[in-house]
């Protein structure tokens, strides 16, 4: 595996792969890699001839008072994991490399970013969209892999890729969970043992939603109320939001008469976690 830190080195490393007409895959990450990230890497290596992974903790997607400084970083471990997976190129730019001192233009992610995480974290998705667009333009991949755990981010990236003609196929990848059901996240490292147990509130709320749908409940409000009640059973978990949304527009639905996405976010102690699941009404 080759590691580069500048845009020029990255483009130069990719030039030979293009001359050989290899398909190029990109997996953007912020490091602190876990099995969720590695599932994306494996999918990329299987799908493409040449796999690029980026590790960059992007400051522009962190708001005031958020955890940019404390965000987990373990580049030595990350290097070992990626080399073992057969990654071809690792791109690890600094903030100065990615943005420069006079960077001014950003990407407005549009209406998909207005609700949910966008409302709770103003400016977050502007930072996400901007850095993803920059990575796409630096690497120019044929395919790029994003996890469904950050479902709103995935939808924004899909929309941006289409609207800005980035000429890349966005491949969604399933959420990877721990044995107890908690979605894998780099932020899980912040949780104390008791908080880690309390973090079960999110996946349990999704299980309650799926069960209610299977029992015949079709009212989105009723299902969301059950999700909120489930989170409330865990004293260290404080719900930010829960909703059933259209999987394309991310707008709330009233009745679950077609496949939808259940989404929620909660703070467990001081750590903010998100989760989601596809809900499909049973065939009558």
Short recap of the structure:
This protein has 284 residues and is of the alpha/beta class. The protein is 39% helix and 19% strand.
Description of the molecule:
The chain is α/β, with parallel strands linked by helices and 284 residues long. It folds into two domains: 2-173, HUPs (Rossmann fold), CATH 3.40.50; 186-276, Pantoate--beta-alanine Ligase, Chain: A,domain 2 (2-Layer Sandwich). It has ten helices and nine strands. A hairpin with a 2-residue loop joins β8 and β9 (271-279). 39% of the residues are buried.
Biggest sheet features:
6 strands, parallel
Overall structural domain count: 2
- The CATH architecture of the largest domain comes to 3-Layer(aba) Sandwich
Order of helices and strands: EHEHEHEHHHEHEHHHEEE
Q: Hey, roughly how much beta strand do the residues contain?
A: 15-25%
CATH fold topology of the largest domain:
Rossmann fold
Question: Looking across the biggest beta sheet, what order are the strands in?
Answer: 1-4-3-2-5-6
Shape: globular
Helix content: 25-40%
CATH class of the largest domain: Alpha Beta
What's the Cα radius of gyration?
19 Å
Average pLDDT level = 97
CATH homology superfamily of the largest domain: HUPs
User: How far from one another are the termini?
Assistant: 52 Å
Q: Quickly count the helices.
A: 10
Number of strands: 9
Low-confidence stretches: none
Instruction: Give the class from helix and strand content and strand pairing.
Output: alpha/beta
């Amino acid at each position: 595996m080759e590691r580069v830190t500048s845009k020029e080195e990255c483009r130069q490393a990719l030039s030979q792969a293009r001359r050989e007409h290899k398909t190029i895959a990109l997996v953007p990450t912020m490091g602190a890699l876990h099995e969720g990230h590695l599932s994306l890497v494996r999918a990329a290596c299987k799908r493409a001839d040449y796999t690029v992974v980026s590790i960059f903790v992007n400051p522009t997607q962190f708001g005031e008072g958020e955890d940019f400084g404390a965000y987990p970083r373990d580049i030595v471990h990350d290097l070992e994991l990626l080399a073992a997976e057969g990654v071809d190129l690792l791109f690890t730019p600094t903030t100065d490399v990615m943005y420069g001192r006079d960077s001014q233009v950003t990407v407005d992610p549009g209406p998909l970013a207005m609700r949910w995480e966008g409302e709770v974290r103003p400016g977050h998705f502007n930072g996400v969209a901007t850095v993803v667009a920059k990575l796409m333009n630096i690497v120019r991949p044929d395919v790029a892999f994003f996890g469904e755990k950050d479902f709103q981010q995935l939808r924004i990236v899909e929309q941006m890729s289409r609207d800005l003609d980035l000429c890349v196929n966005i491949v969604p990848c399933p959420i990877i969970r721990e044995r107890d059901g908690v979605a894998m996240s780099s932020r899980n490292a912040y949780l104390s043992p008791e908080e880690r147990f309390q973090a079960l509130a999110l996946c349990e709320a999704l299980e309650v939603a799926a069960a209610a749908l299977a029992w015949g409940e079709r009212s989105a409000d009723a299902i969301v109320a059950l999700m909120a009640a489930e989170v409330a059973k865990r004293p260290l978990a404080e719900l930010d939001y829960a909703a059933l949304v259209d999987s394309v527009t991310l707008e709330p639905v009233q009745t679950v008469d077609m496949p939808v996405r259940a989404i929620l976010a909660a703070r467990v102690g001081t750590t903010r976690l998100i989760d989601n699941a596809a809900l499909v009404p049973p065939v009558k």
